[in-house]
Specification:
The chain has a single domain, classed as 2,3-Dihydroxybiphenyl 1,2-Dioxygenase, domain 1 (Roll). The chain has helices at about 15-25, 70-80, and strands at about 5-10, 30, 35-40, 45-50, 55-65, 85-95, 95-105, 110-120, 125. By secondary structure, the protein is an alpha+beta fold.
Length: about 160
């Protein structure tokens, strides 16, 4: 089953971990010096916090899917919604390796759809253009040219079918 994803920027990781651990009545599944993540089951939420240097508050929202096919299905819906979709294959972010699709809604809120394929030892490693302040792993969607209308997310990332 898929999970809703929320990533918040925080200014004090330890204080935030204590607060959210009490709120969720559980400890985070992952804790790093600059990052913590809870994998909640009721409701099914991947809730992450980090000290990225960005303003405190929502960094991005998204969906974590369990398969490449699930990511492709979201890609088709994103294409139908219009706007720019930025794919990232085998990227490292938030101490995980994932295939991702990024977009922004009409208000400019970043949305990440992703399929996690493994763990990583670093917060971020990649070549993609980062968000305008350079502090987050999300690409600067506004700086990427929209995909041509004929290109759709019809295949799972790295499947070689397209």
């Amino acid at each position: 089953m898929n999970r809703f994803h929320v990533h918040l920027n925080v200014t004090d990781l330890d204080t935030s971990i204590r607060f959210y651990s009490a709120l969720f009545a559980t400890q985070p599944a992952v804790v790093k010096p600059d990052y913590a993540k809870w994998m909640l089951d009721d409701p099914r939420v991947n809730f992450a916090i980090s000290t990225t240097g960005r303003a405190a508050g929502i960094d991005h929202l998204g969906f974590q899917v369990e398969s490449a096919d699930g990511l492709a299905a979201i890609g088709r819906r994103l294409d139908a919604a219009g706007g720019t979709v930025v794919p990232e294959d085998a990227t490292i972010c938030c101490y995980a390796q994932s295939d991702k699709l990024w977009t922004e809604d009409p208000q400019g809120t970043r949305w990440e759809s992703f399929h996690t394929t493994g763990e990583a030892t670093t917060y971020y490693a990649g070549e993609a253009a980062c968000a305008t302040d350079g502090a987050a792993c999300s690409p600067d969607v506004a700086s990427v040219a929209p995909r041509p209308a004929a290109v759709a997310s019809c295949c799972p990332p790295a499947s070689g079918c397209c």
